[in-house]
Amino acid sequence: MRSAGVLWAFLLMVFLAGCAGQEVRPPEEAVKSDPEKAANFAKEGRKAFEEGRKGAAVQAWQKAVELDPTNAVTVNNLALVLKDQYRFTEAVRLLETGIAHSPEVAELHFNLAVIAELYLLDLETALEHYNRYRELSKAEDQEVSGWIADLERRLE
User: Fold this and answer.
1) 3-37 burial, b if ≥16 CB within 10 A, otherwise e?
2) Distant-in-sequence, close-in-space partners of 44: CB < 8 Å, separation ≥ 6
3) Containing H/E element for 8?
4) I need a labelling partner for 64 at 20 to 30 A (CA). Which of 30, 75, 79, 86 fits?
């Protein structure tokens, strides 16, 4: 009789453990691109940033990027504020998304390289993006050239 009680208790625990699993949700609909609405959020973000309301700027720029991830200026602005908030991994992911949509924008590569090197200590990523920045910027930047040489030495 005791073993039957233990069996029932075990089965009840298994059942309850199964009920405690993660909630299953239907897939979310993809956000539709809306460059005009995104531009309004981008302006709202710029205004909030200029007024010193960085939290509101982040919220507005996140909505803008959701609606138009091809706007490199908004992506870059948002990434820089995230960096200032010590949200380095988010900033890098955002810059990578920006680069995927706008690979020829030198500033995205530069900011990704700086965050990767200084805050995430990802020297290989930093070197890759400093080099890409130098290729795209077409201006000889001695400071960046020095950083590249330093990274190459450190990675040897």
Assistant:
1) eeeeeeeeeeeeeeeeeeeeeeeeeeeeeeeeeee
2) 56, 60
3) helix 2-19
4) 86
Task: Enumerate residues 6+ apart whose C-beta is below 8 A from 39.
Answer: 64, 68, 71
To which residue do tokens 């050239």 refer?
145
Residues near 137 by beta carbon (within 8 Å), at least 6 away in sequence: 106, 110
The pLDDT value recorded for residue 25 is 47
SS3 assignment for 83-102: HHCCCHHHHHHHHHHHHHHC
Q: What is the pTM of this model?
A: 0.78
Return d(Cα 15, Cα 22) in angstroms, integer: 14
133 burial level (CB within 10 Å; 0-12, 13-18, 19+): buried
User: Are the beta carbons of 108 and 72 closer than 8 angstroms?
Assistant: yes
User: Which three-class secondary structure state does DSSP give residue 133?
Assistant: helix
- Per residue in 76-102, pLDDT (tens digit) is 999 999 999 999 999 999 999 999 999
Angle subtended at Cα 28 by Cα 38 and Cα 48, rounded to the nearest 5 degrees: 30
What is the distance, to the nearest Å, from the Cα of residue 122 to the centroid of all Cα atoms in its chain? 15
